[in-house]
Design goal:
94 residues
Amino acid sequence: MRKPIFVLAILILVIAGLFITRTAISNKISTKGVALGKTQDELAKVRTENVIIREKIYSLSSLTHIASEAARIGFVDSKSNFALTKARPIASLR
């Protein structure tokens, strides 16, 4: 008669141990979720800032902006074209 009581006691201890383990793991997972949420919010903020900075870079490096800055500084368009060598004919006359 002692064997069934001993087996029952071991089963109750195992169930209690598993319940405590499940509670501890659930508690750790829930606190990790809060930290993960904060990290995701921070990541979204940084991505938004990157998009804004990228747009500023694009506008500052655009040809219209560069041309207006060059005109403001005093650069002028060169009206004469020159070539280092003579132009070669595309087709020869026969």
